[in-house]
Every structure is written in structure tokens, then in C-alpha cells.
Design brief:
Blueprint lengths: L7 E5 L3 H12 L3 E5 L3 H20 L5 H9 L2 E3 L10 E4 L5 H14 L5 E4 L6 H6 L7 E6 L8 E6 L5 H13 L3 E6 L6 H17 L5 H12 L5 H8 L1 H15 L8 H8 L21
Parallel strand pairs: 1-2, 1-4, 2-3, 4-5, 5-6, 7-8
Antiparallel strand pairs: 6-7
Helix pairs in contact: 1-2, 1-3, 2-3, 7-9, 7-10
Pfam families: 3HCDH, 3HCDH_N
GO molecular function: 3-hydroxybutyryl-CoA dehydrogenase activity; NAD+ binding
Family: Belongs to the 3-hydroxyacyl-CoA dehydrogenase family.
Length: about 290
């Protein structure tokens, strides 16, 4: 298969990760379309992008052209068919395997024959997602970090059948977005969450068992281990529901007790305390979605 030239990118999902990816795609000069089934989610995403772009522009981190690309050139809509002309489709939907499998089959049916389909999944098998399509060689994992406009890393995950040309194209796109890329094998959690989630989970066990307060646990990791953010504050930032979903994948796929989600995490998610986005997690936040 000849390498695909990427000019148009469609991003599926207007949540925190999706709108961040769409923003970086647009400011990097790609013709970008953001798609979500919810018109309200798209409206919130456009406002979040506007605020982020204006802030970066005011600090001199984005030039006038990049600002204009994001604020005036980006398209959005609720119809999945808007992705039909994209050269690269990046899925950033909820971390739910049956949902993603269904979505990949739909995207495969409507996408151009030479289009690449990527997933921003943080834990689900790229090989499994690729198997839901008739173009497994053109499927790849592109795991961006939150917040996407700020964090430089992208984990690139090659599925069993992902072609060398697809990897090369994805690498080129990431570099055009100003990202630093490291490749990971298609194993549950890849590199980032295979290491990060057990640490967060153990911090929650420490809190549940009374080993220390949330402030003490985070303080020890920040001042003792030089982490910029403590694990409990980081879990709130990621979303406790997202952390639980990733841990459940790790536990199910790898079958080891060290990945068993802490009961306190399950209880908090069941109560709707998902962290910053709901205003309450291990800490309380004054404004919903913001600390």
C-alpha cells in the first residue's frame, strides 16, 4: 500500500481528548472536522477550543494563522458521514470496547479506501479494533496525552497487521503537530497506563486503608518523587471513571490481581464523583470541570 498523504483529519468525539486533538490538528494546518453525536458536546468543545487557542495566542505560542485555522477553519457536526473524505480519522470516543468496535466498523464502511483509522484509546487492543474493519493494515493507535495542546507525547501503537506505511504516515502527522513520539507494542495499557494506573490504584488503596490523607499521599509523591502532580490529583484530572475503565481492561486482559481496581474507586465512580469534570473526586472543585 502506498503511503497516504494526510491533508484532512476527522476527529470522532468532542470530549476533553477529542477537542484537544481537533485543536492541535487545526492549528497545525490540517483541514479538521470534529464529530460528535451530541450538538451540546460540540458547542462546549468549540468554546473550550476558542478559550485555549486565545490563551496560547496571547502568550505567543500560536501565530495568527494557527489561531485562524482553529477558530474559523475547523468544521463540526453530528453526522458520522462527515468523516467520509478524511485522509485520517482519529477516534476519541468513550473508553468502551463494544462502542469502539461498532464505531470502527461504521468508519470502515464510510471512509475512503486509502484512509487511515486511528484510535486514541488508552488501553484497548488496536489489533481487536482493526479486526472490526476490512483495512487492518491501515489501523493504528495514536494515544495523545491530556491536555493535548500542552503535552508533547504521543504513544504510537502498531496492531498485529498495521503496515509500515501506516506507522510512517502517523509518525509524520504527529511530528507535524509538534509531538514527540514513542512506539509501544499492542499490549493492554501500552506503556503509559501499564505503569501509571497501578500507581494511581495503589495510592487509592493507601487512602482507603488510612495509610495517609489524600494531601499526604500526593505530597509525598510530589516532594519525594518529584512528580509534578500527586497520583490522586492526577486521577481527578484524568477522570475516575476513565481510570476505572482502564484498570478493568488491565485486570481482565492481563489477569493479575495487581491490576484489580480499588473498591473505593468503584464506590466513587458509582456515586458519580468522577473528579474535576463533576466537581468532586478525591478533592472538591469550586467550578464543575475546573479546579
Amino acid at each position: 500500500m502506498a503511503a497516504t498523504k494526510v491533508e484532512r483529519i476527522a476527529v470522532i468525539g468532542a470530549g476533553t481528548m477529542g477537542n484537544g486533538i481537533a485543536q492541535v490538528s487545526a492549528t497545525s494546518g490540517f483541514q479538521t472536522t470534529l464529530i460528535d453525536i451530541s450538538a451540546d458536546a460540540l458547542e462546549r468543545a468549540r468554546e473550550n477550543i476558542r478559550q485555549s487557542v486565545e490563551k496560547l495566542h496571547s502568550k505567543g505560542k500560536l501565530d495568527d494563522a494557527a489561531r485562524r485555522n482553529a477558530l474559523e477553519g475547523m468544521l463540526s457536526g453530528t453526522d458520522l458521514a462527515l468523516a467520509a473524505e478524511a485522509d485520517l480519522i482519529i477516534e476519541a470516543a468513550t473508553e468502551n470496547k463494544p462502542l469502539k468496535l461498532k464505531l470502527f466498523a461504521q468508519l470502515d464502511a464510510l471512509a475512503k479506501p486509502n484512509a487511515l483509522i486511528a484510535s486514541n484509546t488508552s488501553s484497548i487492543s488496536i489489533t481487536a479494533l482493526a479486526a472490526a474493519t476490512k483495512r487492518p493494515s491501515q489501523v493504528i493507535g495514536m494515544h495523545f496525552m491530556n491536555p493535548v495542546p500542552i503535552m508533547p507525547l504521543v504513544e504510537l501503537i502498531r496492531g498485529l497487521d498495521t503496515s509500515t506505511e501506516t506507522v510512517a504516515t502517523a509518525l509524520e502527522v504527529c511530528r507535524a503537530m509538534g509531538k514527540t513520539v514513542f512506539e509501544a507494542n499492542d499490549s493492554p495499557g501500552f506503556i503509559a497506563n501499564r505503569i501509571l494506573m497501578p500507581m494511581i490504584n495503589e495510592a487509592i488503596f493507601c487512602l482507603m486503608e488510612g495509610v495517609g490523607t489524600a494531601e499526604a499521599i500526593d505530597g509525598v509523591m510530589k516532594l519525594g518523587m518529584n512528580h509534578p502532580m500527586g497520583p490522586l490529583a492526577l486521577a481527578d484530572f484524568i477522570g475516575l471513571d476513565v481510570c476505572l475503565a482502564i484498570l478493568e481492561v488491565l485486570h481482565s486482559e492481563l489477569g493479575e490481581d495487581k491490576y484489580r481496581p480499588c473498591p473505593l474507586l468503584r464506590k466513587m465512580v458509582a456515586a458519580g464523583h468522577h473528579g474535576r469534570k463533576t466537581g468532586r473526586g478525591f478533592y472538591t472543585y469550586h467550578t464543575e470541570g475546573k479546579g
